């Protein structure tokens, strides 16, 4: 959803966009978008101005915003988490499984962020624009 919001802001090329318009594009409630915008603003990815005819816009060009930055801005919890209930320590597997899995989860998170660093919001917008161009031709 965060990439969608930022893609709309990038598509609007610096114009201020209201949370209502963003919510309409995503097909959700403007309150959900406002909460998301707060996280994106905290990460310095958007600037928001309140008032009639105002709204949010990107704080820098889409080509200078990576998907990793967006991911870190909105993902409060690690996507790879251990179950809350502790395993049976009397079992040899239960005693060691969390250490083994934690190593895999740490590696997976690093790989995910490394891959997201390779793609910018500008890349996403390029694909969106190509898709829009193809849709207009049909």
Structure explained in plain terms:
By secondary structure, this protein is mainly alpha-helical. The protein is 59% helix and 4% strand. The protein has a two-stranded antiparallel sheet. A hairpin with a 7-residue loop joins strand 1 (46-48) and strand 2 (56-58). The two termini are 27 Å apart. The mean pLDDT is 90.
What are the SSEs and their pairings?
Elements: H1 2-11, H2 19-26, H3 30-42, E1 46-48, E2 56-58, H4 67-74, H5 92-117, H6 121-137
Antiparallel strand pairs: 1-2
Helix pairs in contact: 1-2, 1-6, 2-3, 4-5
Main attributes?
138 residues, mainly alpha, two-stranded antiparallel ribbon, 6 helices, 2 strands, elongated
How would you summarize what this structure contains?
With 138 residues, the protein is mostly helical.
Give the proportion of residues in helices: 55-70%
- Output mean pLDDT: 90
The amount of beta strand, in percent, is: under 5%
Shape: elongated
- How would you sum up the major sheet? 2 strands, antiparallel
Taking all Cα atoms into account, the compactness measure Rg is 19 Å
Secondary-structure element series: HHHEEHHH
Number of helices: 6
Helix and strand content put the structural class at: mainly alpha
Number of strands: 2
Strand order of the largest sheet: 1-2
Q: Between the first and last Cα atoms, what is the distance in angstroms?
A: 27 Å
Low-confidence stretches: none
